[in-house]
Write a structure and sequence with these properties.
139 residues; 6 helices
């Protein structure tokens, strides 16, 4: 039985972690977490990566925005990973819900409250995001 788009959209909220193959420039499925939603039905997300990119390792402001996700807590992960909180990816909420209906995306879990609070604190303190991005997605 397939849920209506409106019900799926209600599940797409801050802290929801999904796995999807909808990203055009990526040749494999990616985990990502929803960090917020603006007033135009666009959600802001961060990718989950298995390791920190070498480029990011040389940039302290970006490196401090790599948040560890432990596979003992997030059991759908095969190994400890990092939420890349330095690159905000924006996705239309209805399109994401439709991708779930098509089987292209799947809800895997949710960030635990402690991690979500730390992530929001880090991104709100960061100077790499504009005040508008912070107000739209991180408040």
């Amino acid at each position: 039985m397939q849920l209506p788009i409106e019900l799926l959209e209600q599940e797409l909220k801050r802290g929801t972690i999904l796995h999807s193959n909808i990203f055009e420039n990526i040749d494999h499925g990616k985990f990502f977490a929803i960090i917020g939603e603006d007033d135009k039905n666009v959600i802001g997300t961060f990718f989950v990566n298995s390791k920190i990119n070498d480029f990011i390792s040389t940039k302290p402001k970006l490196l401090e925005l790599q948040y560890p996700l432990h596979c003992t807590i997030y059991q759908f992960l095969n190994y400890d990973s990092y939420l890349c909180c330095s690159d905000l990816i924006k996705i239309d909420k209805t399109s994401l819900a439709q991708s779930i209906c098509k089987g292209e995306s799947m809800i895997k879990g949710n960030l635990i409250e402690e991690d979500l609070k730390k992530i929001l604190n880090n991104v709100n303190k960061s100077k790499i995001f504009s005040e508008q991005e912070k107000n739209n997605f991180f408040k």
